[in-house]
Design a protein that fits this description.
This protein is an alpha/beta fold. The chain has seven helices and seven strands; from the N terminus they run αααββαβαβαβββα. The model has no long low-confidence stretch (mean pLDDT 84).
Length: 217
């Protein structure tokens, strides 16, 4: 099988999002016959049906549902790679950590201090944002502190830092350090070690029945 083209994946995702070839074509700014032929060619190359088409509706097949997730990850990775290359070309050498204000459970100073003790690491810049996962997927941040739920770890690797099981209803809330699955750099590895060290130190000095680092409600 020939390699898939990013254009084919983008066209497929547009139809998957809209579940309507006409709306998808308008969104892409192309003619509907062109879009239909591209999707049909993609199905032939994969030797699977991606959509169930009727006169009234368009629906994803199980194969189409699987490809949606993978195609989105591929396109996000390519976009993020472009942004990182542009950052590197502009002479930037820094690690960008995204978080929401107060979303560090009081651990940020200890994490930064532990990170500074790591050898040969770039300076770290903390940015505050609501959609930290999106910044990771777009290559605009190298790592982020996320809360589960509600954040989504699709396409990301993560290290769990804290688990809050005080709520009566499961699942427990987690504070994690996350980074793109396709981008585990030495600096991110150093930050992960620093975060784990900071949590271990906070746990060691906490009272037996009360952690000094708690997740913000």
């Amino acid at each position: 099988m020939d390699r898939l083209e990013t254009r084919e994946l983008a066209y497929f995702l547009a139809v998957a999002d809209e579940l309507h070839f006409g709306r998808a074509a308008a969104r892409l700014g192309i003619a509907q016959p062109t879009l239909s032929k591209t999707v049909q060619r993609l199905e032939r190359r994969l030797d699977v049906s991606l959509f169930v088409r009727t006169s009234r509706a368009v629906a994803l097949t199980p194969a189409g549902q699987m490809l949606v997730r993978d195609a989105r990850t591929v396109l996000e990775a390519l976009s993020a790679a472009t942004v990182r290359a542009q950052r590197t070309g502009a002479g930037e050498r820094r690690l960008i950590l995204a978080m929401k204000p107060g979303g560090d459970a009081g651990l940020l100073p200890a994490i930064l201090a532990a990170y500074d003790r790591e050898p040969d690491v770039p300076p770290i810049e903390v940015v505050f944002a609501a959609d930290r996962a999106r910044l990771l997927r777009e290559g605009k941040a190298d790592a982020a502190l996320l809360h589960l739920p509600p954040d989504d770890l699709h396409g990301l690797y993560s290290e769990t830092l804290l688990s809050d099981t005080s709520d009566a209803a499961p699942p427990p809330r987690l504070l994690v350090l996350a980074w793109p699955a396709h981008r585990t750099s030495p600096a991110v590895a150093a930050l992960t070690r620093a975060a784990v060290t900071a949590v271990a130190a906070a746990t060691a000095v906490a009272a037996p029945d009360q952690s000094s680092a708690r997740l913000t409600r």
